Amino acid sequence: MRVIQFASKTFDSDLAGFCQGASVPKDIQDTVTAILADIRQRGDEAVCYYAAKFDGAKLRARDFRVKPAEIAAAAKRLPAAERKALVAAHENIVAFNKQSLPKDWLGKNKHGAQVGEINHPIRRVGLYVPGGEVPLVSTVLMTATLAKIAGCPEIAVFTPSNSQGKIADGVLAALDLIGIDEVYRIGGVQAIGAAAFGTLTVPAVDKVFGPGNAYVCEAKRQVFGTVGVDSLPGPSEVMIIADESTNVTFAAADLLAQAEHGSGREKIYLVATSAEIIKEISDEVQVQLKLISRSEKTQRVLANGFLAIEVKTLAEAVKVANYVAPEHLELLVKESAHKGLLRDITTAGAIMLGNYTATALGDFTAGPSHVLPTARAGRFFSGLRVADFMRRTSVVRYDKASVKKAEPVVSAFAAMEKLDAHGRSVKIRAL
Ligand SMILES: NC(=O)c1ccc[n+]([C@@H]2O[C@H](COP(=O)([O-])OP(=O)(O)OC[C@H]3O[C@@H](n4cnc5c(N)ncnc54)[C@H](O)[C@@H]3O)[C@@H](O)[C@H]2O)c1
Ligand SMILES: [Zn+2]
């Protein structure tokens, strides 16, 4: 862990330097470029090669697609309590995300012409479900549920297998629950490349979604333009803003929870109003580290990806949060400060309010998608919503009366832009 003070002369550059560590280094960028080029050229053959290299899985192209019977069997095997959890989480996710289903609208402009917007689901979407370190069962629900609400006709899911070519039962059971049967047991850069460029076995998609490690995230960035991509959700981040009212045990547990993802590139931030609070919480982190099962990988994040920041006021904490744009932001501060912080913090992916709101509630079951921007992309991206699975077309209809009203405006623009044919095309309708 590193501690810096907001008041220090080098604070801005220290913070910038630490955040820079969340961006993708040149060697990963180059690796990704090379793999994508190979996938584009050799298709399935290259996918097999990289699945063997990175996941240890000996797959033939005809093994990529998971058979319906395998999905059904996994769903059947899932213990009742786990199935119940999937259903409960799904209910909250559906209820939350239905709220943001974009609506078509039709109105009139100042000329009296009809104007409006219509929305359509994106025809074919590719969802990435991480599975390198641990199978992210919840990511199935946090992406596929939204795609279903949007009404995407084709939903293809990509997730890495283990070295035996197997996918975790929970992931397949979640897909079964949502009713998705196009599933490919391929992950990493090779999955993103196959989804974007298409191969003989994998038809190309129109947009790729979902979180992943630095390789997956960088692959999505590089295929942007060939296909659409969502918010570049990379290795997890949490920032906790703490004051004297913070529950130290809870705060330490939440820092450890996001450090445990295990890709090793996760970032955790503790912003506190005194050095004592920082010491109490970071000591407690060390105590609780002994209680969790993934402690070795988590320790790596604690050593390299843990920044504590001492501030004098919550106004300073706001400045830090707005710069970092953390994926998850826990405001474990006195209740009287909540309203002001919600007003002033404008870049967080998701805000968790009050001592009882663990980030893990949002990860699994609260309702909003856990697919959230990282590495400061929260400055310009928001968390995944149903609208991201849709595209919009604007519609305009003039009649003779309204075109007459618009003609002088068009003629003036046509003259300014020296585009005679534009002006003429409207003038002849207004005669
Ligand atoms: N931001 C969000 O919304 C969000 C949500 C959930 C999870 N996450 C993050 O997703 C990440 C999941 O990472 P993961 O690693 O467990 O799974 P992953 O599926 O994202 O990545 C695994 C794949 O990475 C590839 N890979 C690994 N090492 C490589 C190398 N040296 N060269 C090329 N390719 C390589 C392999 O193909 C492997 O299959 C975690 O960091 C987690 O924090 C983010
Ligand atoms: Zn998490």
Automatic annotation (TrEMBL):
Cofactor: Zn(2+)
Record GO cellular component, one term: cytosol
PROSITE patterns in the record: HISOL_DEHYDROGENASE (PS00611)
Active site: E327, H328
Binding site for Zn(2+): Q258, H261, D363, H422
Binding site for substrate: S236, Q258, H261, H328, D363, E417, H422
Positions annotated to bind NAD(+): Y128, Q190, N213
Co-factor binding details: Binds 1 zinc ion per subunit.
UniProt entry keywords in alphabetical sequence: Metal-binding, NAD, Oxidoreductase, Zinc
InterPro entries: Ald_DH/histidinol_DH (IPR016161), Histidinol_DH_CS (IPR001692), Histidinol_DH_monofunct (IPR022695), Hstdl_DH (IPR012131)
GO molecular function annotations of the record: histidinol dehydrogenase activity; metal ion binding; NAD binding
Alphabetical list of SUPFAM superfamilies matching this protein: ALDH-like
CDD domains referenced in this protein's UniProt entry, alphabetically: Histidinol_dh
Keyword Zinc: yes
Keyword Metal-binding attributed: yes
Taxonomy, superkingdom: Bacteria
EC number: 1.1.1.23
Biological process (GO), any one: L-histidine biosynthetic process
NCBIfam families: hisD
Similarity comment text for this entry: Belongs to the histidinol dehydrogenase family.
Protein name (database record): Histidinol dehydrogenase
Upper taxonomic lineage: Bacteria, Pseudomonadati, Verrucomicrobiota, Opitutia, Opitutales
Gene field: hisD
